[in-house]
Amino acid sequence: MKRPMGQFLDITKALSDETRVRALLSLRKGELCLCQIIDLLHLAPSTVSRHMDLLCRAGLIERRKQGRWHYFRLVGRGGSPAAREALHWALRALDGEAALQADARKLARVRGRGLKETSTCYRAN
Description:
The protein is mainly alpha-helical.
């Protein structure tokens, strides 16, 4: 387990970037595939992957891999108290934020399309 100072620095670093906060809060309604987050943010897959790695290292989200797909969800009860508290604070502090409301509308469309229609999930290699 990380020392409190290291954990604090990881969490604050993860929350110090608007793109990471948008990615984090996109998981409010449940698990998403990396490709769905890429569609939401309109960024390169490698960029989104780095952002998600940082959020994982901070303990704010959890990742699971199924085949070649990576899925993310908000940290659950197994997460550290500091990470859970930071997550709850971000959710409360940004409730009603216009950019996040726009993301929620777009995410509803992305989820509605399903993974097979999401541009980056089933792209030929």
